[in-house]
């Protein structure tokens, strides 16, 4: 009986355990279902939120694109409007310039016609006065056999009438130089002086003032407007060359009547040279285009600096340079054999220091200088032997650069020699002249004393 009760209890306990396990399983299954449902619900909510966010992003992107497109269209319209306005202003400005030029030309023609009529009227009055004077004199003139032959009558002198644009009376000569011929002579003169007039005509004058130091030249150009009208559209063109570099500080584009404008060009020498650099001026004068193509008087000697030294140092350097092409000698007919004039030209014009105590002949001169460039510095030497009775000069030049020696020879001959019919200094022969003493042995390459 007791065993039956224990078995019944065990069965009841087992049944309870089974029921509890089943209940636990049911609860777990329910909880899993609830969690799965909740997870599905959360995923749905999250998916919906993402879809909403994507729709909002797409809408915002569309709005931004629309705004950007509007801004670009507005900017393009503004640019087109500004360009159209500039074109219209340019056309209007051109039309106004053409109209103003036409008006100025018409006014100038009227003024010229009026001045011509005034001159004709004045000439007629003078002729009429002269005719009346002749009539009066003929009425009271005595017969020639009483007082002898009478002097012939001549027209009275008419004084020169100067206008505001007249600067000097014109000299009557067999040949009047043109503005270009005067500019050529001025360029030649300015190669040995630091300031002067480079070009001039009845409307424009261009003057030059220069300063050279250690291979650099500062050239100030002064453009004077001689007319009673404004000069406009002033432009300066400096074509580049290989032997010098230039830096231009341009002038203002306009010059008031009876006024001047100033601009500067800085030149730096690169290598020895012979030709002059070009410069071009373009402007509107009295409504007409004016273009001037000139030469800048930039000579090789402008970049030389005088080099004073003792006679023995000069001898030592002179004797180290021998033979062509570092040494060149020319004999020629001289413009003047005056030693004082040549000495002044050598020191001030060619920028050579005149060395004393070298040549015992008082009619001869020797000099020394340094040519300076961005490529280096080169000593230069000159000896001029004059023969005043024959009007001749023998020129000997030496330097450590062949091109430099040749260039120096050309500038010396340009100012010292008499030009032949071919435009070059005439060369001839001189009586034998003594040579400078030399040392017995010299190095093949120049090795100059300290300071050279």
UniProtKB/TrEMBL annotation:
GO biological process, one term: vesicle-mediated transport
Every Clathrin adaptor alpha/beta/gamma-adaptin appendage Ig-like subdomain domain range: 188-297
GO cellular component, one term: clathrin adaptor complex
Organism encoding this protein: Arcella intermedia
Region annotation Disordered: where it falls in the sequence: 63-89, 421-452
Name the record gives this protein: Clathrin adaptor alpha/beta/gamma-adaptin appendage Ig-like subdomain domain-containing protein
Key words of the record: Protein transport, Transport
Gene3D superfamilies cross-referenced by the UniProt entry: 2.60.40.1230, TATA-Binding Protein
Pfam family, one: Alpha_adaptin_C
SUPFAM superfamilies found in the cross-reference section: Clathrin adaptor appendage domain, Subdomain of clathrin and coatomer appendage domain
Domain of life, per lineage: Eukaryota
């Amino acid at each position: 009986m007791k065993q039956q009760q224990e078995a019944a209890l065990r069965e009841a306990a087992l049944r309870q355990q089974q029921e509890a396990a089943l209940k636990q399983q049911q609860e777990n299954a329910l909880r899993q279902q609830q969690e799965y449902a909740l997870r599905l619900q959360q995923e749905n909510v999250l998916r919906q939120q993402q879809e909403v966010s994507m729709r909002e992003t797409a809408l915002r992107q569309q709005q931004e694109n629309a705004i950007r497109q509007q801004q670009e269209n507005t900017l393009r319209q503004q640019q087109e409007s500004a360009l159209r306005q500039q074109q219209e202003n340019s056309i209007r400005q051109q039309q106004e310039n053409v109209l103003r030029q036409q008006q100025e030309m018409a006014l100038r023609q009227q003024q010229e016609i009026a001045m011509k009529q005034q001159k004709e009227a004045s000439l007629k009055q003078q002729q009429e006065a002269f005719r009346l004077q002749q009539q009066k004199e003929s009425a009271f003139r005595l017969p020639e056999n009483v007082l002898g032959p009478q002097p012939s009558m001549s027209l009275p002198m008419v004084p020169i009438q100067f206008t505001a644009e007249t600067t000097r009376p014109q000299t009557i000569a067999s040949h009047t130089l043109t503005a270009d011929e005067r500019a050529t002579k001025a360029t030649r003169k300015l190669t040995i002086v630091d300031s002067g007039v480079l070009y001039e005509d009845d409307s424009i004058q261009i003057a030059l003032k220069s300063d050279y130091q250690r291979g650099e030249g500062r050239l100030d150009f002064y453009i004077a407007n001689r007319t009673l009208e404004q000069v406009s559209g002033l432009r300066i063109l400096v074509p580049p060359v290989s032997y010098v570099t230039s830096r231009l500080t341009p002038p203002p584009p306009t010059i008031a009547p009876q006024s001047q404008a100033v601009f500067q060009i800085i030149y730096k020498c690169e290598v020895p040279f012979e030709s002059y650099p070009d410069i071009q001026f373009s402007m509107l004068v009295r409504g007409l285009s004016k273009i001037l193509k000139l030469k800048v008087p930039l000579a090789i000697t402008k970049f030389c600096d005088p080099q004073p030294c003792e006679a023995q140092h000069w001898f030592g350097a002179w004797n180290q340079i021998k033979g062509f092409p570092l040494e060149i000698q020319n004999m020629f007919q001289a413009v003047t054999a005056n030693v004082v004039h040549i000495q002044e030209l050598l020191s001030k014009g060619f920028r050579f220091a005149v060395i004393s105590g070298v040549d015992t002949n008082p009619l001869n001169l020797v000099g020394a200088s340094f040519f300076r460039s961005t490529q280096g510095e080169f000593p230069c030497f000159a000896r001029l032997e004059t023969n005043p009775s024959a009007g001749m000069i023998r020129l000997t030049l030496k330097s450590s650069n062949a091109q430099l020696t040749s260039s120096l020879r050309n500038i010396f001959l340009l100012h010292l020699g008499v030009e032949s019919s071919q435009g070059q200094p005439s060369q001839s022969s001189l009586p034998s002249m003594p040579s400078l003493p030399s040392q017995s042995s010299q190095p093949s390459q120049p090795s100059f004393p300290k300071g050279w």
